[in-house]
Amino acid sequence: MNNKSYPIHLLSVTSLGVLLVTLNLSSLNVALPELTAHFKADALESNWILLSYMLFTSVLILVFGKLSDIYGRRTLYLTGLILFTIVSLLCGLSPNVWTLIILRIIQAAGGALVITNTTPLITDAFKQKDLGTALGINVLVASAAQLLGPVVGGYLIYMLDWRWIFWFNVPIGLIGIIWAFIILRPVPGKLRGEKIDVIGNLCILFGLGGLVFAFSIGGIIGWNTIPVIVGGSMFVLFGAYFIWWEQRVKYPSIDFTLFRDRTFAMANLSTFLNSLARSSVVLLIALFYQVIYKENTFTVAIHVLPVTVGMIIASPIVGFLSGKYSTKLLSTVGLSISAIGMLLLTIHTHAEASTVWIGIGQFLVGFGSGVFMTPNTKSIMLTVPVEKRGMANGLRSMLQNMGTVISTAFSLMLVTSVLPPFLKDSIYQGVNARVTEADMSLISNGFQLAFAVMTILTLLAIAISFLRDEKREEMIIGTIQATIHPTKGR
Fold first, then answer.
1. Confidence bin at 341 (pLDDT 50/70/90)
2. Residue 70: pLDDT over 50
3. Do the beta carbons of residue 100 and residue 94 sit within 8 Å?
4. Pick from 307, 349, 360: which is nearest to 449 by CA?
5. In this structure, which topology does domain 6-196+253-484 adopt according to CATH?
6. Which residue, of 27, 148, 180, 298, has the greatest Cβ tally within 10 A?
7. 390 neighbors 73 (Cβ within 8 angstroms)
């Protein structure tokens, strides 16, 4: 294979990986009530079917980002595909809910290996003039997977059973493994000799785990209970120690010197806030239609399509526009569109709501996020030295996934926090929930509260995105590209 065609073939490899991992996560958003019913899970167990995967993905992405810089991306990417495919098969054989949760943790390791190496592989292979389009295609594939995941998952559960939301990953994984073995070139790591920050990563795991546990259980048993206090205390103590430790360890998990660049700092913070606000939209809408409207999984999957349709439409558009307009402008405009969508969802998620307005709100959230993500990712990846791209992407992915796991726990906590104890489990029971009209009104209030808070978070993300230093960003990108492609333009 010649050098000219390699980037395109590599993009096809990474697209299969993104498709595999994203399909798995998005299909579970509509499947949660079915899993809850099958395993007779309570509210906490239902939460952790989703949260276990998200939590460990968030932590392991940072670890694997550093490993890819040390040992190279090909081996780790292939390892991730193989592990993810094998565990997907095993998940469908789970005899009980806690076996499934443990397998989801192992599956998270495979998914983190794939996610961590995808963007650096693309960034290394494509020239700057084509990078925006390539990253746009990457986002487009992820958006398509988010679109297909609920539909495929809902259909398979409706026609077969819950096991197939894991088993349908297996053939995709096998194709991806074979294709990656053929296409990917061995590339040695650029930071050989460095070591993994074990203590730092354990601090992230226990600190973030404590916070997520507190959110996941606080809305169920109350905020002044010992488990919630312990979880919150773990977050504060491990978080403080992590910041102290990272300033002193020789090979830190997070290179805090990168945050001295305002553009890098603001781009990453807006990534986190966008993920925190947006990530639970599909899950909440899916639960809303199942509990309030008693829709089956396949019909619910159709109802949540507007989010990913919006992202799919936005991705190629912003890939084209990224070469004409600044990342600051595109990112901020994208977040502003999402904020309008969040506001519509806040207003219209009630028992007598128009499904049209709910659909429009979802579409705007997805379209705005699609406009935001590509230029923001490009900004992050091109404002760091080449040898630290794995770490930078690991940090970006960790913040995005951290936003996702906190968003899931936080939003479900908001929904259940306004409910009396006898109604809290009904959120996870879907069509099986026995609720009266008065109960539906209370449940609707919970959903509206969650979307109101997410609207505020999106407004905060807009302000943060606008604070990035546009002139310095352009200067850094120009300097890096002149170093990577010194003969460009001759």
1. very high
2. yes
3. yes
4. 349
5. Growth Hormone; Chain: A; (1.20.1250)
6. 27
7. yes
